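Give me structure tokens for this 981-residue protein.
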Amino acid sequence: MSDEHVVFGGETGLDSSTGTERILLVVQGQRNRKLLADLLGEYEVVEAAPTTDEPLPTFDLCIVDAASYQAVADTLADRKDEHGKRHLPVLLLVGDRDGQEASQRLGGVADDALRIPAAKAVVRSRVASLLRTRRQSQQLALYRRAMDDATTGITIADASHDQPLTYVNDAFVEITGYEREDVLGQNCRFLQGEETDPKPVQRIHDAIEAGEAVSVELRNYRNDGSAFWNYLEISPVYDDTGELTHYIGFQSDVTAKRQAQEQLREETETLERVFEASPIGITLLDADGQIVRANAVAEEVLGLERSAVVGRTFDEPSWEIVGAEGEPIDSEDLPFSRVMATGETVRGYEHGIAEGGETRWLSINAAPLTDESGDRIGVVATIQDITDRQAQERELERLVDFLDQTQAIADIGGWEVNAESGEVEYTRGLAKLVGTWPRTEFDLDETFGFYHPDDQADIRAAFERLVATGEPQELECRLRTASGEIRWAHVRGRPHQSEPAVYRGTVQDITDRRKREHELKETKDLLQSVFDASPLGILAVDEDGITRLWSKGCEQIFGWSEEEALGEPLPNVQEAKRPEFDELRTDVITGEQPAVGYETVRQRKDGSLVDVALTTAPMRDSDGEIAGVVGLLEDITDEKERKEELRRYERIVETTNDLVYTLDEDLTFTSLNTAVAEFIGSPEGELIGEHLSTVFQDEHAESLAVATSKLSAEQIPETTVETTIVDHTGEERQFQTTISVGLSAQDAKELVCVGRDITELKERERRLSVFDRVLRHNLRNKMNIIQAWADTLLRETRDETVSQGATTIRTASDELLELAESVRKFESVLDPNATDSLTTIDVAKYVTDIASEAELSYPNASISVDTPAVAEARVHEAFELAVDELVDNAVTHSGEHPSVHLSVTLDDEADAVVVRVADDGPGIPALERESVVAGEESPLQHTNGLGLWFVRWMATNSGGSLQITDNDPTGSVVELRFLRT
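Here you go.
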């Protein structure tokens, strides 16, 4: 065809096409090329000369005229071979004189011939038809690759006759072990075997008969005879006329998932039995504090029906929650609020709960529930009724109702990536999965953008490994669809076998499966939290007595870890208890009544024994058959010790000579010991209910009433009064009575009174006081007489021996008078319980003043002082006198030129003020130092002076301490410590 040929004839006004493909023009004549380019303007049109050495550009359709055809025919043939089954059309333009050769040329490279001149509509129709064929071939090739590369087995069967297989993909061959040539032409029933359930087989048959889709899960057999679980989905395919032509089947080997589901179901079933049968009440609360689940014991503890428990909040207004004294408890202080605020477990929190006039006392353990990211989503709480400390009935069941029996096969999409050009192709299934228009074009980076931001690095790394190593890659990750929805997908890729730069793969939607697995894990984690948080020891043994379950509670009680216990006979059953244990296990397995609250003894890892309360229940397998025994053990050692301690206290109260009794708020006797009855001379039964004034007279009753008011007003735990009461003989006795407030069994306040007879003690104190006054008065008088005579002897005698004796008498009498004066001076610190003489002072200032006065009093002594600016402490009012005593003692016993150093320091770690007095004298004798520091003397070890004792008593009365150490190189250091204020 030359430039003079007319390409178009006839019509001039034609509709434009909407194609976007590339069309190559190999046509002679500038005018013809321009006419064709204008006509095909909606396409990308490129031109090439037939005689050039340059390779032809890429194209989706080549239009060549007869004159150029011979030059490019071989090149076009090679290009078509490269595309394989992807149709690459060639349109040959022929003139009238070329018509005879057109049919021969169509048998070669050209796919169609168009006689010119031709109408524009004809040209455009031919172009559109050939491009449509091109697109269909590309889509079919991509679908075929996607099916071949799919991870799910895909089969196509003819709908006629016995539904013979016409296609199976690689995954089907891999799953079943059958080669294609062995199965094509056969019905898929060859996968069935002896243990294939006929019910799903019948469902398949019925669906095929009805021409409907069906999905089943059934046991199939591989070529080697091994069984596997096959999730099969069959869909009918109809042609344009509505006639059923084929069936498409999808097969997935779900054996591992089924086994995992069964194992998980058995584990959760056991945890559910534990949850429901636990003798401790268990509740689950969401993040808002609402009860979302409660076991039967929790309902019984709270005194409500389950329908009334679920949905309530932990601080339900109708529940009156009170503390030990009956005071309301703020909801922020309750275990739920504390756990949600801190994330820490709360154990042993006790409070009362009242509804309908009845109060129950509860012990709460609460632990946080967290999701996979660690965020707190609620609280699991165990509730134990401690009102009467009686065990609740316990039964165990494991959690049931976990996973569905079938798993739907997710949509599958195919993809192909050219790593060199970055071109991406994908099937309609993948477009549907990510929510895009099927013909939308994406480059490789845009494709990665469909993955969740947190997973993009992983998917990129997997693709890079695929390109770098050529090894198939697969991973599970999240997709983000065009609408923003997050979906889970299983992505698989592998290199193309014949094109090195091309990589293909599939994307399978596994969102539903991941969701079920996540819910299953959450349920198991939830029950595992309940299992771990339980203070009870929870265990299970099989029919042979082998340990199959060992909780953290067991480890805490007995010492053996889970790794040490599982798979072995129960380690906590000592040999002597084996027959008893075997009998209990046999009774439960054979259907006898399980044990509830059975008290026995078990052994710890260290060999010690522990008292436990045992509750048993049957452990059932997945078929509901008894396969062993579940046991719950509660350590009741403390409870038994408390009961024994209570019995000891009762014996002490009954045997003591003190008067012990309790009164209600009206001062009426509610209980009393034997000593009270014997003192009054009436049986105990006759005194219960009597008013205090009728038994112990009005004076005693009025004193106790005033003391009770003082307890309430000053909020102090106890107080003491001294009164005179008359015993059954009419004798008046002085009693010191201590009164405190307690709670009765009915939670009402009562007075606890302990009266001690101090009649003889008071009389002895009075006599000692008289003896002290007389002794001290006479001592001064007699010593004055002795000193007068000693002075007379010294003045009048010339005898040296007599003079020495008189001097000795004078010295001894001076020391005795000084001792008497010290006793008078130190009297303020004699009472060890006196607290009204304590005051807060600046110790640094006082010590500085004492040092200044000492410098004036002892000019031959070197007095130094070192103090901080301020050092406040709470000390006895005799502090200054005591430090003076230490300085006087140091100067007196340290030679002609003594050196005394006073210091005050702050001990921040102990929060104390430290006063030290150091001298360079001979030191304090070891005997005296040991006695004063120890605070007592023995008959064979005693001191000669009161000075150090006075200092020690002052420090003790101040709430402080005294220590004595050696000074370096000689002398002593006396250290006083007081609490800072």
